[in-house]
Amino acid sequence: MQKFLIILEQTKTGYSAYAPDLAGCVATGRNKAETEKNIYEAKKLNLEGMKAEGIKIPAPKTESEKMVFAY
User: Fold this and answer.
1) Residue 30 or 1, more confident
2) What whole-number distance in Å separates Cα of residue 43 and Cα of residue 51?
3) What is the pLDDT of residues 16-67, one digit of tens each?
4) How far is residue 22's CA from residue 32's CA, in Å, rounded to a whole number?
5) Contact 42, 34 (CB under 8 A)
6) Helix (H, G, I), strand (E, B) or coil at 42
7) How far apart are CA 9 and CA 39, in angstroms?
8) Residue 1: per-residue pLDDT
9) Over 90: is that where the pLDDT of 2 sits?
């Protein structure tokens, strides 16, 4: 099992999400919960498609960190 970073961003009309290590793996939704569900399905389909095509699944390389800045 591999863990892939998912980036969630609030937009003017809802949320969007993408997986930086999986090219083309994106999703949107009206709210955060819907977007999380949609990106999970997108990631699942992306990985299944790569496997079916015989494409090597890339190793996760992207990391995240929350940092606190005093300003």
Assistant:
1) 30
2) 12
3) 999 999 999 999 999 999 999 999 999 999 999 999 999 999 999 999 999 9
4) 20
5) no
6) helix
7) 12
8) 77
9) no
Question: The whole model's pTM is what?
Answer: 0.86
Cα–Cα dist 51/40, whole Å = 17
By the 8 A CB rule, do 25 and 43 touch? yes
Decide yes or no: CATH 1.10.10.60 for domain 7-53: no
Structure-token pair, residue 9: 């961003």
Residues 42 and 22: beta-carbon distance below 8 Å: no
Q: Where are the beta strands (DSSP E) in the chain?
A: 7-10, 15-18, 26-29
